[in-house]
Specification:
The chain is of the alpha+beta class. The chain contains five helices and six strands; from the N terminus they run αααααββββββ.
């Protein structure tokens, strides 16, 4: 089954461009806590006393920032209470967001395209996954897809390995601890205005 919302290069390109622009700024987890706090606030997250490494899993906040930069309505992405109402602040909330409109969900790794938001993890441990990433490529012949992601370890801008907004490759198989579980592709109704 293919995803309900067709992939559109211009929409996807805006997400991808926003993610790469943040990566090119060299966002590091410890050094850029004010910027990270901005991503968290943007999706309605709150951390009394401010952000410190380990106090908030901000992978979804980073993806939310990139989606908002591409024109996705903030109200779609904001954390809802109870969490079953959706949002992008956690993999659990995102799993409920895609259930609210099945046209948003990407079920097969073969359907991943650049700009899609993907959840990775080990499905046997947590059916809603463990980490949110943005795809930079479709799945290749090696069974991997390239990502840009926040709150992770990988290639920082400049080529060093570190924690922050990074580039990485993930497996498309959910049996691996880093494998694809499901994805989110915004529907046309998720945008503030039509993005052609």
């Amino acid at each position: 089954m293919s995803p309900g919302t067709p992939w559109k290069a211009n929409r996807a390109g805006r997400v991808f461009d926003a993610a790469l622009a943040v990566w090119e700024r060299g966002v590091r987890d410890v050094a850029d806590s004010a910027g990270i706090m901005g991503y968290i606030r943007g999706i309605g997250g709150r951390i009394p006393g401010g952000y410190r490494n380990g106090r908030y899993q901000w992978c979804g906040a980073f993806a939310g920032y990139c989606l908002m930069q591409s024109g996705v309505r903030p109200d779609i992405l904001r954390q809802q209470d109870p969490p079953e109402l959706g949002g992008i602040g956690s993999t659990y909330r995102l799993s409920h967001l895609v259930r609210l409109d099945e046209a948003r969900v990407i079920r097969r790794a073969a359907d991943i395209r650049p700009g899609d938001v993907c959840v990775v993890g080990r499905a046997e441990d947590r059916p809603y996954g463990a980490h949110i990433v943005i795809a930079r490529s479709a799945v290749g012949a090696d069974g991997r897809f390239a990502t840009v992601e926040g709150n992770a370890h990988g290639e920082l801008h400049g080529g060093a390995w570190g924690e922050g907004v990074i580039l990485r490759h993930r497996l498309a198989t959910p049996g691996d601890s880093r494998g694809f579980i499901f994805g989110y592709r915004p529907t046309p109704a998720d945008y503030i205005g039509e993005v052609t």
